[in-house]
Amino acid sequence: xxxxxxxxxxxxxxRRRGGDRNRWKPSSSSQQEPPPAAAPAPLSSPxxxxxxxDGTGQAAAAPKRGNTSSxxxxxxxxxxxxxxxxxxEKLYTCSGQDAFDYFKNDPTLFDVYHTGYREQMSHxxxxxxxxxxxxxxxxxxxxxxxxxxCAVAKNxxxxxxxxxxxxxxPSVIACDMAHTPLESSSVDVAIFCLSxxxxxxxxxxxxxxxxxNPSGWLVIAxxxxxxxxxxxxxxxxxxxKAIIQLGFSLVSxxxxxxxxxxxxxxxxxxxxxxxxxxxxxxxxxLYKRR
Length: 290
Ligand code: SAH
Hints:
alpha/beta; single chain
């Protein structure tokens, strides 16, 4: 038993398919709202004519070339911000299988999603993935890790099975995380860092339970607002209780971060899944248009 007291890793290199990857950030539809992506520009309406300072009403000189390209940049950013929000909402409101099929149909959307995610995460004072990486580094490098919704592999010495919806990196297994190709009782740590997105998230945790060794760790970071009953989120106690009923014990909970909560569970030596588990619904984290 140990209460994990992590500190930020800060400035770590993020993995990325074909480059650096920093992944998404969800914000609550109601509570904590870190700066979101900008709203798409209303392209149908032309910009209002500028008035000359002398009040003659004649159109001002055309903007310089530099201004035009920065305007285009802004418009592009707004459009991709809108696209990201749409994809984010999709992931929070469909099943894992639907999400998998959706990205399989057009894998380029996955990059759109992660570009928006990186932008959102850049506003968080602390990245949960860094806390988890530090936790892993303080423990056993020989532990095998299953990283559901991958993030940690390039930053730890452990053997890591990275699982995600899309893969253009041979080290990432593309699948719906409710059904991984991993062997039963084959990993020591299962990580879900902001990845319990699908409406069938309990199936992801059941899968983690299947692949975890007895006494294996289940580490979950989730957006705080999804687990804030005062704002339509789930009761964190109920969430923990459901996972305990799955056959785990709660070792510690870290609530000191503004944007997310971390749970450290351990699979019981002789874990027994309760007959019926009352899983709370986790509130989707939708970004507001601004
Ligand atoms: N853990 C990373 C990324 C979080 S974004 C980090 O903290 O930075 C959530 C990730 O979970 C996305 O990459 C998304 O594709 C993945 N994901 C969501 N639902 C999934 C599912 N059903 N199966 C596999 N991956 C899923």
